[in-house]
Amino acid sequence: MTAAAVPGIRRGRAGRREVAVVGVALADCGRVDDATPYALHAQAARRALADAGLEHTVVDGLASAGLGTLAPVEVGEYLGLRPTWVDSTSVGGATWEVMAAHAADAIAAGHANVVLLVYGSTARADIRAGRRTGTLSFGARGPLQYEVPYGHTLIAKYAMAARRHMHQYGTTLEQLASVAVQARANAAANPEAMFRTPITVDDVLSSAPIADPFTKLHCCVRSDGGAAVVLAAEEYVRDCRPATPAWVLGTGEHVSHTTMSEWPDFTVSPAAVSGRLAFERAGVRPSEIDFAEIYDAFTYMTLVTLEDLGFCAKGEGGPFVEKNRLTLTGDLPVNTDGGGLSAQHPGMRGLFLLVEAVRQLRGEAGERQLRSPGGDLPRLAVASGTGGWFCSSGTVVLGRG
């Protein structure tokens, strides 16, 4: 069954091959003190190719960012790959959705057949071992030189945006906290999540202050881990292991700003553009989506991205999230693995969104598997990654075929 056969889904432009995600996997995640980032890349890649039922020799495309001086070259060498198509786009957490879009376009156009997206990080272990500090510096040259002297940390920038939303639309701390509570509820059904013990809104509000209005539980966990995704052209799908591939139906990408003074509206994320493009290209509406995987380094990211993807109107994100809609049994399950707030967050987490979306569509999510009241598997999913401090966004719509 191809994407063209899924009711209501529009086939791509004539002459372009359809593209499916045929393999997904995680490397060891959480607390991994005895592995290098390269080892986590290799572990995730091997597992994803095994999941697809493909040999590494068929991989002719590689996308990688965040490791080494020449990311795809060094990673490719370590993995024993000699790709003829590469991508090293690096736009923060949105990197992997943007790379998936680029890979799908390359495959559709015939420039590659099988593309591996792979990531690994020991962000947590490096801090424990003293190999790096807890503060991530983006440098002080170029446009950033005008903000660095004033002490704007990455967390502070997100906090400023959240405060603006609260001021403009009346969004409350309790509503933001409910995002973390629901993420933890989803994580409780995920044996791979770092934190599974239920929390309450009061727990979130009373945790240690980080950057007003965020407390510790408003912020993502810091973990080690890795992930990999294999995309392939339609003619390869029949030879792959998954009985139910996840087809790439539409993608969108957008970059917004790097300096806060160039951000026109703190209450609008770049997902407002990338999401619109992805849905238009997929030929589906937000109301048709069964579940969403959304980048959640902070609770506000989930809330504002839901607005910008069109799941609720601008300014209505607070009331939307406070009614337990985001849980596994809610109207719109979000971050079904527990997200970056509870499951794992080893840095640029966007690839984990794609892994979880595909597992859900294939019916391989175990205890946290989504099903309709009639027992059917979900049919449509969206994964939307955010990079920097709302600097970039990539959105991918996937369909079960």
UniProtKB/TrEMBL annotation:
Domain Thiolase C-terminal: 252-400
SUPFAM superfamilies, per the entry: Thiolase-like
Pfam families the UniProt entry points to: Thiolase_C_1
Gene3D superfamilies, alphabetized: 3.40.47.10
Superkingdom to which the source organism belongs: Bacteria
InterPro entries: Thiolase, Thiolase-like, Thiolase_C_2
Protein name: Acetyl-CoA acetyltransferase
